[in-house]
What does this fold into?
Amino acid sequence: MNRKSHMTCLIGISTLLVSACSQTENMAKPVVAATDTIQTQATVIAINRPEREVVLRGQDGTTMGYALDERVRNFDQIEVGDVVTAQYYESIAIAVEPATGKPTIKDTSSDQRAPLGDKPEANNLRIRELTAMVEDIDYSNRLVTLRGPSGQIRKVKVGPDVTNLEAVRRGDQVRVRHTEAIAVAVTE
It folds into this structure.
């Protein structure tokens, strides 16, 4: 999967996630969702092949050196003057819903690298989804006590942007889905 289709897939996931959150919101339980995408480019200005190191100059003129391990396939294809483009995507969605079981945590990830012989390219997608049980609510101070997957208890201050806190009840479940993706590619 190339970088463009990978990022398109991530945006599609985000759209589905926000859509699902909107449906939950219609049930009057609180939902919060946010996404952000950052793209940056840098130019390769020096290469130390024996040490697998590159020096990049960013768009703002700053330079940074990187040691690249064997996971960077096709290192020998990198040349001075190549442009490195990195895209970072992050989303988080938090929804309160009726409990469906014990608190859980689930991690999913996928990695992709460039085919042999191509310029280096890599994509990484990580999704962490966890649920926690609402143990107690202090409505006047906007504090919710949650019990996580391993039994830990945490008090969370709920911000003023959550306008329907009164819909949350003891025994509800809080679902948090955090998605991160990075796509990095070297182009001529």
Summary: The helical segments are 3-25. The two ends are 19 Å apart (CA to CA).
